[in-house]
Write a structure and sequence with these properties.
Blueprint (H helix, E strand, L loop, with lengths): L2 H28 L6 H19 L3 H9 L6 H18 L3 H23 L3 H26 L3 H9 L5 H27 L12 H14 L7 E5 L5 E4 L2 E6 L7 H19 L15 H15 L3 H15 L9 H8 L16 H16 L8 H13 L26 H17 L5 H6 L4 H10 L9 H9 L6 H11 L3
Parallel strand pairs: 1-3
Antiparallel strand pairs: 2-3
Helix pairs in contact: 1-2, 1-3, 2-5, 5-6, 6-7, 8-14, 8-20, 9-10, 9-12, 10-11, 11-16, 12-13, 14-15, 16-20
Length: about 500
């Protein structure tokens, strides 16, 4: 076999291990009994080391050197680039650090589930400190190998090519106009408020409604499922996508939008090129693009007047509220597009959401760069929440700096993906509307043209192109944040 063929065989074998990792991680978060955590953590740490050994196999260096000299077609060259990128990212980390990170992350995440409920910052920070210290070691090692600053080296894991030098001016611009837009929207909505929904709404009916909406959104239940977890997420693998949500009996809108958000992630995974599923080139391009798909589903599509009108009969039938004025399309739209300053990122509306992300980005950037320490997080969080959203989290760690799962396992550099995703999603929708009558598709309940555009321009490409190349080919230009600003103004301020 050629060097390239040997690499394909090697990375196919590695993908099988990653499959097991993904399903074990889903089970740990969604199904595993409490007492199984220590053994599961040890097993997953061992599996992480095994994957690391596979990815850092000494013979790979010669294979890459040989493959670069072979006559490869355009796809094979892109595939080789992605395999080599993964190899380079892995080879810089010592095996011991990989194992330590896995153990510290598992312990921190597992304890977080209880500590968050108990508002136990003192207990949580003692578990978070070793996670941060190990992340700093990783960032220094990656930075030294790539020539990037520590935080940029971590950011590059999730959004290749993105840097804090690019992000800072984008986020500074958003901070310059977003607070004013939020205030204008809130003032306008106060003049025409929604009728509140009255629960309780049983978990069973919310689940039934969620499953029906997933079906409308094209989710393939033969290759995935819906479950419950503390924090909604999309996991598993493209052939077996596992999404979760969480339910409260006084509000079904949160769980449903959580399901729609995760279904966006899932459709991206299910739409990736199946013939390349075992190779890095067949995986999602970046987390920013991944978030663009979830936010396209949740924000761009599902909170539109046409989509809410389409869902209204399904919602009223599920909860037996056909003649209830609170369940009219007009009122449900008001509820689904309600803008308010809140504590929780995953429940935030699309106007206030960027403030939550920028806050986290600024904290994790400075944390990894060593400018602040774990002990400083609550005070900085509270100050920025008051500055960006005008609300205080002093003493409220549950709804403040302990609400997210990302930092528990050392996923520093991930948060910017959310707002990058929102900007990409707005740009994709603007481009899609040039050739697809989106509202007509929704009114006729024929969403196929929407899925076709996404599959042709995003899903089927996998990682054969860089993020910038993907965006340019899909929309005709690089990332342009102006589309996101225009979207907010048109949806919320223009009559």
């Amino acid at each position: 076999m050629s060097h390239y063929e040997n690499l394909v065989a090697h990375f196919t074998r590695l993908s099988h291990f990653h499959h097991l990792q993904a399903i074990c991680g889903w089970d740990q978060a969604a199904m595993m009994p409490e007492g199984g955590n220590d053994a599961r953590s040890a097993a997953m740490a061992e599996l992480a080391v095994l994957c690391h050994k596979q990815l850092t196999e000494p013979s790979l260096k010669a294979m890459f050197e040989g493959a670069r000299k072979e006559s490869l077609n355009e796809f094979e060259q892109a595939s080789l680039t992605e395999m080599e990128r993964r190899w380079q990212q892995a080879t810089v980390l010592p095996e011991k650090l990989v194992q330590q990170k896995s153990l510290a992350g598992s312990r921190c995440e597992h304890a977080w589930r209880t500590q968050r409920k108990n508002n136990d910052w003192e207990g949580f920070k003692e578990n978070l400190k070793p996670v941060v210290e190990l992340a700093r070691q990783e960032a220094l090692i990656r930075g030294a190998a790539s020539g990037l600053s520590p935080y940029n080296a971590m950011l590059d894991l999730y959004e290749p090519g993105m840097t804090k030098e690019k992000l800072d001016p984008i986020f500074s611009d958003i901070k310059s106009w977003l607070p004013g837009v939020i205030e204008q929207i809130i003032e306008k909505q106060e003049q025409n408020q929604a009728i509140p929904l009255q629960g309780p709404f049983s978990e069973e009916k919310q689940n039934q409604l969620g499953l029906k909406i997933m079906e409308i959104l094209g989710f393939d239940f033969n290759h995935g499922r819906l479950d419950v977890s503390t924090h909604p997420f999309c996991g598993g693998v493209p052939s077996d996508v596992r999404i979760t949500t969480r339910y409260t009996d006084d509000d079904f809108t949160s769980s449903i939008m959580g399901i729609i958000h995760e279904t966006g992630h899932a459709r991206y995974e299910q739409g990736l090129p199946k013939q390349h599923a075992s190779l890095p080139v067949g995986e999602a391009r970046s987390m920013g693009i991944h978030e663009s798909q979830s936010l396209f589903f949740e924000m761009q599509l599902s909170r539109s007047p046409a989509f809410v009108s389409m869902l209204t009969p399904l919602i009223t039938e599920t909860f037996g509220a056909k003649d209830n004025p609170a369940f009219s399309p007009e009122n449900l739209l008001k509820i689904y597009t309600k803008v308010q300053k809140g504590f929780i990122r995953v429940d935030a509306d699309e106007a206030t959401y960027p403030a939550h992300v920028i806050l986290r980005y600024e904290i994790e950037r400075d944390l990894i760069e060593g400018l602040i320490e774990v002990d400083d997080i609550p005070a900085i969080w509270n100050r920025k929440m008051q500055e960006y959203l005008g609300i205080s989290t002093e003493g409220n760690f549950t709804d403040g700096c302990m609400q997210d799962i990302h930092w528990t396992d050392g996923s520093f550099g991930y948060f910017p993906s959310y707002t990058l995703g929102a900007m990409y999603a707005a740009q994709f929708m603007a481009s899609m509307r040039k050739t697809v009558d989106v509202d007509a598709c929704i009114h006729t309940q024929n969403l196929a043209p929407i899925w076709t555009w996404l599959k042709d321009n995003i899903w089927s490409k996998g990682s054969t192109r860089s993020t910038e190349e993907l965006v340019i080919q899909a929309t005709g230009e690089s990332l342009n944040p102006e589309y996101f600003k225009r979207h907010l103004i048109e949806r919320y301020l223009n009559d």
